[in-house]
UniProtKB/TrEMBL annotation:
Entries under InterPro entries matching the protein: Beta-prop_EMC1_1st (IPR058545), EMC1 (IPR026895), EMC1_C (IPR011678), Quinoprotein_ADH-like_sf (IPR011047), WD40/YVTN_repeat-like_dom_sf (IPR015943)
Transmembrane domains' residue ranges: 936-957
Membrane topology: Single-pass type I membrane protein
Keyword entries, A-Z: Endoplasmic reticulum, Glycoprotein, Membrane, Signal, Transmembrane, Transmembrane helix
Domain of life: Eukaryota
Main localization of the protein described in the UniProt heading: endoplasmic reticulum
Any one GO cellular component localisation term in the record: EMC complex
Taxonomic source organism: Hypsibius exemplaris (Freshwater tardigrade)
Subunit: Component of the ER membrane protein complex (EMC).
Cellular compartments annotated: Endoplasmic reticulum membrane
Name of this chain's protein: ER membrane protein complex subunit 1
Length: 967
């Protein structure tokens, strides 16, 4: 063999060897991916849907959406999947004010209306951006226009801010021309049918209109200024042209006054403002400022106004007069120069039809209606966007994207609902991980042992119960066979049931707008969703969610309550529902006052139900459900119920006791404390969890002494931010006893500020803050101990214990920006705790509690090393092996919810934000379960060999004993 062939053979063997190793390494890392975890990506509540009539180079039809959560994404209109997505900067710098789409790029105006950024439509890759001057404003506007009168594809982008207009070339971003204009509080930009650029401006007492050349930016008239009383922040305008030979009109609607008025863009037209109210047209009598939409159509003079699930189809005459044509419960959308698509909702059924309107007679000629089911959980329609199509008969069977009040984005195509996306899942504000009910067979097994009595009675009960179990097994088997023959799935469960280790649960979540979701923890599927009418977040507080009865108490259904406010009055509102099925249990309860505080009463009734108390702003206390007239509840409320409340505005903390006054419960203020001074504000209020498991009451030191923990279940951690005399920020954390108002501890961090996230558990408090001196995030840890003297009582009483704890505190630096933190929770609290940290980079990592021990010494002694203390280091390492979401990035995490499973070693973790992520973590490894790599075959062989060997050895021992006996 020649040297060259020998070299080639060696190289080939080396490559094959390296490829085999890489394949093995890949299998090691990816064999568990997606087994016990899942993640879901969302866009958020869409602000506008952008479609392009011409898309080249792609086999997919794309729609571009930007949302309230500062997300720009491309959606495949065929399947509803996200093709690409950009999560822009958080806060005002990333707020999208306007968006335009061209042939091969989509552009958004952000950074308070001063930055234009463009991306490739197919891949989402960044192309160019331009930062132009002007004052900070959120009223900037951009449109895509064509400088050709033949209405070809747009080839330039025109943007306007508070005082000037700029034209950019679409492909390069070069500035083509710039024009000054009068300052306005709200800017309007439109391109008329004649190809002119219509520039409008709204101020409180004037409407200005100017016509410019698209190609040069030169003014074609001197401008029109007319006096008008408008509210720029609540006024929306559209350009409507009554006829081809008539100058276009600006049609504006002021939602604060329900006024609809028209203004001609011609300087020779009548200068009188022509306006009217919607009720004068016999249309919508009540409007809200958050959900009013104007829509103009290609048909001459036609436009629509939509709000509260209703729409008015209106016509504008050549002299500026407005006339009502038709009112529907649904939405209008223009399809062609003569066709208008009408989407109506009635009795959970949506009907879609196309009406042809003649420009003169305005007589509708309705086509055949197409219907599809439309759930009430979607809410009313808010917008409809028709998808462009080259098919001439597109208006007969239109395809359109729709957005609903319940944040549902969907597509209607080919006469049916093609897909839908629950974008409300990107706006979750409160979550709970709830146990699933046991199966019917397991419930019958438990009933076997509940019967008490004589032996014959219990024996008979057991026989009957086992007969019922056999009957139930046969019924389930028959149902699964019939279901398999019908749908092809023989092992499909009709209802969620608890698994053997109680790792499968249902995740109950709610948004601030009153949308409730139930998610399956196995895969994130939406089990149920419902939209609550007139439900909203309280003005100064967050919504609360309480589980009054879990699904473990068969045959009683689970029950939970959502506490919020009435959208119209702001008074308290309670909604009771089954958190397993989502069914409403009782009628919603509306209070006469806003809610000040609420909570669970830890007294269980005979039907395993815990009541809740609600304290209103007049200090009247109510108990729900009202039919729970139990002496135990009355005794607890009278003797043991203490209520703690902190006002975030005034910084005043108050404690209340409850008394019975004139046969009604009344809260009486016992103590109050002012936590803030001038220039300070309360950031967070963090009480302990109601059921915080503490396994060990003390910590064993190296010299065998026990350092007892200070475990106060009534302790509340409050963080306050302020500014000192040198204008430097500082952060203060205060520990208050919620029963007596006594200050347990207080610490101040100089040159520190929020955002602040707090975890309060057992005898320690962890909190994050931004250290301006070193410009990094830090985690502060405070641990509290009683000392070495063992307390006599087996319970803690704030009224009897007045000693202050011994504090041990330290701070650690953590690389990256922290979005949320939480700690792991297990069934009995035996497993070591880990801190779950969500980073702004999209990673979710876990930090062992041993690394966050404030007793870590700089130079540990032999005794401290025996105790398990590791040397102190100011920086916490960000170990990549501890990132629990590996490459599944999750962004804008607002909260982390943890819960225990049936196994003590497993803790369930659910993170929610724009994205959702669920997984299992094992802080102390799976010490109560055999690992997946355990070799059962070797165990079987060893057991078999040991059994055979034991039989042989026993026989030999018996033989030897017999021989010894004969000697």
């Amino acid at each position: 063999m020649s040297p060259f062939l020998r070299y080639l053979y060696g190289l080939l063997c080396t490559v094959l060897f390296l490829l085999s190793i890489s394949q093995v390494i890949e299998a090691i890392h990816e064999d568990q991916v997606g087994l016990n975890d899942w993640s879901l990506q969302f866009i958020g509540r869409p602000l506008e849907v952008l479609v392009s009539a011409t898309q080249t180079g792609s086999s997919k039809s794309l729609a571009f959406i930007y949302s309230e959560q500062n997300v720009l994404a491309a959606i495949d209109t065929k399947h509803g999947e996200i093709v690409w997505r950009h999560v822009l900067e958080n806060g005002e710098n990333g707020t999208i004010n306007s968006g335009v789409v061209l042939e091969d790029e989509v552009c958004v105006l952000l950074n308070r209306g001063r930055l234009l950024r463009c991306f490739d439509t197919l891949t989402g890759s960044f192309k160019w951006e331009k930062l132009f001057g002007g004052q900070d404003t959120h009223l900037g506007k951009c449109i895509a226009v064509s400088d050709s009168k033949e209405r070809k594809a747009p080839n330039r982008i025109i943007c306007a801010n508070d005082d000037r207009i700029i034209s950019f070339a679409s492909r390069s971003g070069n500035v083509q021309w710039e024009s000054k204009c009068a300052k306005a509080q709200k800017r309007l930009l439109f391109q008329s049918l004649s190809g002119e650029l219509i520039v409008g401006g709204l101020v409180e007492n004037k409407i200005s209109v100017k016509r410019l050349s698209v190609s040069t930016g030169e003014a074609k008239n001197a401008g029109v200024d007319r006096s008008a009383i408008v509210h720029p922040s609540t006024t929306d305008c559209r350009l409507v042209q009554p006829a081809s030979q008539v100058p276009p009109y600006l049609i504006c609607f002021d939602s604060s006054t329900s006024r609809l008025f028209s203004h001609s863009t011609s300087e020779v037209a009548d200068k009188a403002q022509k306006d009217l109210r919607l009720e004068d047209l016999g249309g919508i009598a009540h409007t809200t400022g958050d959900g009013v939409f104007l829509n103009s159509f290609p048909t001459d003079g036609l436009f629509s106004v939509s709000t509260n699930g209703e729409s008015l189809l209106l016509h504008l005459s050549a002299d500026g007069q407005i006339k009502l044509i038709k009112k529907v419960t649904g939405f209008y959308a223009g399809c062609s120069e003569t066709d208008v698509v009408i989407v109506e909702l009635a009795d959970q059924i949506a009907s879609v039809r196309v009406a042809k309107y003649d420009g003169n007679s305005l007589t509708p000629q309705a086509e055949e209606a197409l219907t599809f089911p439309f759930s009430t959980s979607h809410g009313s329609l808010e917008s409809v966007t028709l998808l462009p199509s080259k098919d001439v008969a597109n208006c007969i069977r239109p395809a359109f994207l729709f957005l609903t009040e319940g944040d549902v984005l969907g597509l209607f195509s080919q006469g049916k609902l093609a897909w839908k996306r629950e974008e409300g899942l990107a706006r979750l504000s409160v979550t709970a991980i709830v146990d699933l009910p046991i199966s019917d067979i397991e419930a019958l097994v438990e009933e076997e042992f509940e019967e008490k009595g004589s032996f014959p009675v219990r024996f008979t009960k057991r026989l009957v119960s086992q007969g019922l179990q056999l009957k139930k097994i046969l019924e389930l088997a028959g149902k699964r066979v019939m279901s398999g023959l019908r749908i092809g799935k023989y092992f499909h469960k009709e209802q969620l049931e608890r698994d053997y280790f109680n790792t499968q649960k249902i995740i109950v979540s709610a948004t601030e707008s009153g949308k409730i979701f139930g998610l399956d923890s196995r895969n994130g599927d939406v089990v149920y969703s419902s939209l609550l009418k007139n439900f909203a977040k309280p003005k100064d507080r967050s919504i609360q969610f309480y589980i009054q009865r879990t699904g473990a108490h068969a045959p009683f259904p689970s029950q939970s309550v959502l506490v919020g406010a009435d959208k119209r009055t702001g008074n308290g509102l309670l909604y009771f529902f089954d958190c397993i099925t989502g069914e409403q249990l009782d009628q919603p309860v509306t209070l006469n006052r806003p809610i000040l505080q609420s909570g669970l009463i830890p007294v269980m009734s005979s039907n395993h139900l815990e009541a809740i108390f609600v304290l209103d702003s007049d200090l009247n206390l109510s108990i729900y459900p009202e039919n729970l007239d139990m002496p135990e509840i009355t005794a607890f409320v009278k003797d043991s119920l203490h209520i703690f409340d902190v006002c975030s505005k005034t910084g005043v903390a108050r404690g209340y006791r409850v008394k019975l006054v004139n046969k009604a419960w009344k809260a009486v203020e016992v103590w109050s404390a002012t936590l803030t001074t001038a220039g300070e504000a309360v950031l967070t209020v963090s009480p302990k969890r109601p059921h915080d498991f503490v396994h060990s009451q003390g910590r064993v030191l190296a010299d065998r002494r026990v350092l007892y923990k200070y475990i106060n279940p009534n302790l509340v951690a409050v963080t306050v931010q302020g500014t000192d005399e040198g204008k430097k920020p500082y952060l203060k954390i205060v520990g208050l006893d919620g029963i007596t108002g006594r200050v347990v501890f207080s610490q101040v961090h100089r040159r520190a500020r929020g955002p602040c996230h707090v975890v309060h558990s057992e005898h320690w408090v962890m909190y994050t803050y931004w250290n301006e001196k070193v410009r990094s995030n830090e985690i502060g840890v405070i641990e509290m101990y009683r000392g070495f003297e063992k307390p006599n009582q087996t319970y803690f009483s704030s009224l009897e214990s007045f000693e202050k704890p011994e504090l041990s505190s330290v701070a650690f630096k953590l690389p990256g920006f922290i979005s949320a933190i939480s700690d792991t929770v297990t069934v009995e609290g035996i497993t070591h705790k880990n801190l779950i940290v969500a980073l702004a980079s999209g990673s979710v990592t876990q930090i062992p509690k041993v690394l966050l021990d404030p007793r870590r010494p700089m130079f540990p002694t032999q005794a401290e090393r025996e105790e398990g203390l590791i040397p102190y280091a100011p920086e916490l390492p960000l170990v990549t092996e501890n990132i629990i979401n590996y490459y599944k990035k999750v962004y804008r995490i607002r909260g982390i919810k943890t819960a225990g499973a049936g196994l003590e070693s497993i803790s369930l973790v659910f993170t929610y934000g724009i994205d959702l992520f669920f997984t299992r973590v094992t802080p102390s490894a799976l010490f109560d379960v055999l690992s997946d790599s355990f070799d059962y075959w070797i165990l079987t062989v060893v057991m078999l060999v040991m059994t055979i060997a034991s039989v042989i050895v026993r026989h030999m021992a018996n033989t030897k004993a017999l021989e010894q006996a004969w000697k």
